[in-house]
Amino acid sequence: MIKSIVETTEYLQSKGFDSPEIGIILGTGLGQLTHEIEILHEVSYNHIPNFPTATVEFHKGKLIYGLIEGKKVIVMQGRFHIYEGYTLQDVTYPVRVMEKLGIHTLLVSNAAGAVNLNFKKGELMLIDDHINLQGSSPLAFKGVEHLGERFTDMSAPYNAEINSKFKAIAKNKDITLHEGVYASVVGPQLETRAEYRMLKIIGADAVGMSTVPEIIVANHLKLKAAAVSVITDECDPSNLKPVDIAEIIAMAGKAEPNMITLFKELIKTL
What we know:
Elements: H1 2-14, E1 22-26, E2 38-44, E3 62-68, E4 71-77, H2 88-101, E5 105-114, E6 124-132, H3 160-172, E7 177-184, H4 193-202, E8 206-208, H5 212-220, E9 224-234, H6 245-269
Parallel strand pairs: 1-4, 1-5, 5-9, 6-7, 7-8
Antiparallel strand pairs: 2-3, 3-4, 5-8, 6-9
Helix pairs in contact: 1-2, 2-5, 3-6
Pfam family, one: PNP_UDP_1
EC number: 2.4.2.1
Domain Nucleoside phosphorylase: 21-268
């Protein structure tokens, strides 16, 4: 893997991806942040050596390098999931490449369903902690110790200083920002009523199919990491309706301006 990371990094450096400070992973329906970037360079995933390719139609598939609020950023427009048939090492490979290019901070967004019924569609949740229900770890491979500490500490996977800044920005901008625990499942099927009840019992506030692998690897690489979920549906097992994916995408788009405000205002301070 080290050889592959070096090859990918050198290719991107040759394309002008020069010493980015902040990596950003854009989740479902959250691609409009790219309009806020002074784009200097962009490359499609399928042109990047050793990179996976996004297979979900609403995940674009571009790596973008540019400036936001005067900071050099590298943005994944489209992410990878194990439900697409990728391994957890594939899913997190871009994080390792971004770290090799020079980022010190990783910011992640996603769409999630509310298990905590105090959270409503279109609102945002700052992730304070997570539960990994994906059945494995992106660190569970031979030779991982050559890339970082095998037994990575996860006592505080989400950076407290960044989370405090997010909360202050939300208060200042009058944005509803809940705080809670995100559970990451495999998918791609949505949860059953019994599964939603289980998630509530074990302490989850929201559930999705991403983010946790990237956060684990960010901690493995000693990056500062933070993540925000858009609540796109409410998961009440006593009153569960069929899920409309188009409605989820539309809800993510509705909440997107608040997400963009949070990210832009935060980046000013990093």
